[in-house]
Amino acid sequence: MTTRQAAAYIGLSIGALLRARRAGRVKGVRLNEKDWGFYRSVLDKYPRRYFRANLLPPSSPNSPDSIPQ
Known about the structure:
Blueprint: H1 3-10, H2 14-22, E1 29-30, E2 36-37, H3 40-45
Antiparallel strand pairs: 1-2
Helix pairs in contact: 1-2
């Protein structure tokens, strides 16, 4: 996945993703002399601070959002 696609997938800006790669938090693959690529499995392991879609619990039928009015 290209840098732009990876940044959109993980919910970061392109600059933030490249900073994370330079700091060693995300492993990148060199595509050419200017661009980097990223494996989806590596992006799925990257800890996102505020939102992680695959860890949200499913809403239960007894939650306050599901009460009919």
